[in-house]
Amino acid sequence: MQPQALMRSPKRKSSPRLRPQPKHPLKRLLAYTRHYRGEIWLASFYSVLNKIFDLAPPVLIGVAVDVVVQRQDSIIARWGVKDVFAQFLILSVLTVIIWILESIFEYAYARKWRNLAQRIQHELRLDAYNHLQELELAYFEERSTGGLMSVLSDDINQLERFLDNGANEIIQVTATVLIIGGAFFILAPSVAWMAMLPMPFILWGSVAFQRLLAPRYAEVREKVSLLNARLANNLSGIMTIKSFTAEAYESSRLAEESQAYRQSNRKAIALSAAFVPLIRMIILAGFTALLLFGGMEAIAGRMSVGTYSVLIFLIQRLLWPLTRLGETFDQYQRAMASTNRVMNLLDTPIDIHTGDITLPIHEVKGEVILKDVTFAYYERSPVIENLSLQIPAGKTIAIVGSTGSGKSTLVKLLLRLYEVRSGTITLDGIDIRDLKLRDLRACIGLVSQDVFLFHGTVAENIAYGSPDANIDKIISAAKVAEAHEFIMQLPQDYETIVGERGQKLSGGQRQRIAIARAVLKNPPILILDEATSAVDNETEAAIQRSLERIIVDRTTIAIAHRLSTVRNADCIYVMEYGKLIESGTHEQLLERGGIYATLWRVQSGIK
Question: Going from the N-terminus, what domains does the chain have, and what CATH number goes with each?
Answer without folding.
Answer: 25-346 (1.20.1560.10), 366-443+525-535+555-607 (3.40.50.300), 453-522 (3.40.50.300)
